[in-house]
Please model this.
Amino acid sequence: MGEGDRERWDARYREGSHRDAAAPAWLEALALPRSGRALDVAAGAGRAALWLAARGLDTLAVDVSPAGLELAERRARDAGLSLRTQAIDLEHEALPGGPFDVISCFHYLQRDLFPQLIERLAPGGWLCCEIATERNLERHARPSRRFLLAEGELEQLCAGLEIAHADEDWHDDRHVARIVARRPAPV
Model:
């Protein structure tokens, strides 16, 4: 991403463009772990990271924006939750070492990151993603096509994982692909 991206995202968080929001409700119906380690990728202000920490997971939130992570830390303190954060430019730096029992990635697409995501999962670990698709352009000019998934692409990026839930549809006026997939446990 680079320094320019970091500055742009920091400015957006400082301007308050990312309001407090609840974690994605669709995750509530899934039988995700309530203990272990979690990693929230491109965590921003921490809505998914806070949800994971509230479930009892030892959660690390990573993002390019220190300002976004400061918001996440403040929200965690206000909620009485423990949350660790790390500013990292995922286009130039590797993900923190695993293994993680849950990895979440919402509204961030970096295709070459998926092998690292899968590698960082513990055996039996879960990957949860929600990323806008190209159909989103039917209603919104942004994000640009570069940051949008093609139809069926998210399942392809998760090849080798056992898919527990996958869908592509309009949710909250955005066309997104959602997936919850599990790294096979040793037999």
In short: Residues 64 and 180 are 24 Å apart (CA to CA). Helices lie at 3-15, 47-54, 66-79, 114-120, 153-157. The chain has a mean pLDDT of 89. The beta strands are 37-41, 58-63, 84-87, 100-106, 121-132, 162-171, 174-182.
